[in-house]
Structures are given as C-alpha cells and as structure tokens.
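Q: Hi! First time doing this. I have a protein sequence and I read that you can turn it into a structure. Is that right? Here it is:
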Amino acid sequence: MPLARPIRSRVFDLNTRIRAAAARHGVAVAETGRQAVATDPRLWSADRLHASPLGHERIAAAVAHAIHLPGSNDAWTLPLPPQRVPTGWQAAGAELRWAAAFLGPWLGRRLRGQSSGDGRTAKRPQLLPLSATPDSAADTGQRESS
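A: Yes, that's right. Below is the predicted 3D structure, encoded as structure tokens:
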C-alpha cells in the first residue's frame, strides 16, 4: 500500500518483535501478511483498513492452520479467481471516492485531535456473563421478558 510505505520499517520491526515474543511463550502466529493473497482488495472492506467477510474467512482459516486444527490446511493462501480490475478514469474515480469517504475524514479528525470513537458509547457497557446458548441469556437477565 503506497500510503503505508512511510511506516513500513516500523511495521516490520513490530512484526519481528511479535514473532519473537510468540516464540518465547509458545504461541502460534498466523502469518497472513506474507501471502500474496493478502493484498487482494476483495479481502478488505471499503475502508481498506478492516477485513471483509471473505477476509475474515481467510484469517480464520489461517489461524486454524497455524494451530493445526484437524482438517485445516494452507488453502487460505491460494489466490482468488481473477477479476476485472478497473483502469483509467474508472480506477481514478474509485480512488477519489475512497479518499472522500475515508481518507479525508480521517485526516480531518487527526488535524482536530479527534478519534472516530469520540462521543460513542460501548455496545455493551456493563460486564455480563457470557452465555453458551441464546436460551441461557434468560437465566442471566439479559433477555427482556414478554
């Protein structure tokens, strides 16, 4: 990613430190970023920062493979089928729409010292027990009565 080039060496250093810490503690690491498929735009949401549903699927498969779950393999590393890639004005328009929708607002927030989370509240602000099944939610008072 061209915008990430200025911090590339710092990201590589961070990843090296994560691998070293994981090795010291016997923790498996799913190395998704080293695979060419990781740069396929279909694995990323419109903001180009978060994984798409397909991206999450590949990440889950990578984790399953890293921890040697039965039935897992390295198929997650395989490239997706070819797709038509926009070129010329169509590609330029897509870049401008992305910049207007995501990059511009992000830059504006940074310049104002704001975060995208400012003014938001937690989806679940109270610590509650985790229920194993939807039916057990009634036992913990999480479900409204009818």
